[in-house]
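Board notes (copied after class):
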Amino acid sequence: MRLILCADDFAFSPQVSRVIAELAEDSRLNAISCMAVLPNWPEDSVLLRDLPPHVEIGLHLVLTLEAPATAMPGFAIAGVMPTINALAKMAARDTLPLDEIRAEIRAQFDRFSAAHGRPPAFVDGHQHCHALPGIREIVLAHTAAHAPGAWIRDCTDGLITMATRPFFGKAIGSAWHSRGLRAAAAGYGLSCNDSFAGHYGFSGDYNVIFPRFLKRPGARHLVMCHPGGGLRPEDGIALARLSEAAALRTLPIAEMAAAQGLAFPG
């Protein structure tokens, strides 16, 4: 059994990238999910070159609230992609511009590989957009063709297990959007994590909250986190990023994982 502690949003800003890289260098993380669509990604990716070999570097596909890498006239309004709520509604109504999304996903894969020098070790989505109907099929097909060794983030877990962790309603919502993803990934020869945690309200004492993410783990237990630094404008979780980073620097993560039967970081 293994704990995968994954920092999302690398390249969200240079300050966020620097903090994530420092935590990984200190073996406080063993996975990093990268926003290759961001303009500072090529420069920030240099920080990933000398990390310990146990740190997996993945692609954090972005289809919300950022400028796309491609022209998306039917999707990005005034050059900015929609909110996750608008995206989910389009997916539910089968009104997504799938050709534009397909081209954008391809471009983000290409930007990742061009800067990092190899395909992603895993693939997920900002605000879990990769799991939405229509989008997931594109993600799985492209991953299988261009990163066949990668695994896919699955946000599902057992109902009772999710009820023991923070922010139950949000966890249920993510699990609902991810229903069937594991089976669909298997159809493409791709694997997924076995259990998932990390939802909370981005407030409160992260030192107290974090241990609850480790309860009732699966064999490959994925915990997402969002550490960072700086205060990028319009970042609604900027203070939470600082709090998470401070906690992750000092928490006895390896010992806490071992108490749940999980190996960390390797």
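Comment from the instructor: Residues 2-259 form a domain with the TIM Barrel fold (CATH 3.20.20.370). The longest helix spans residues 98-116.
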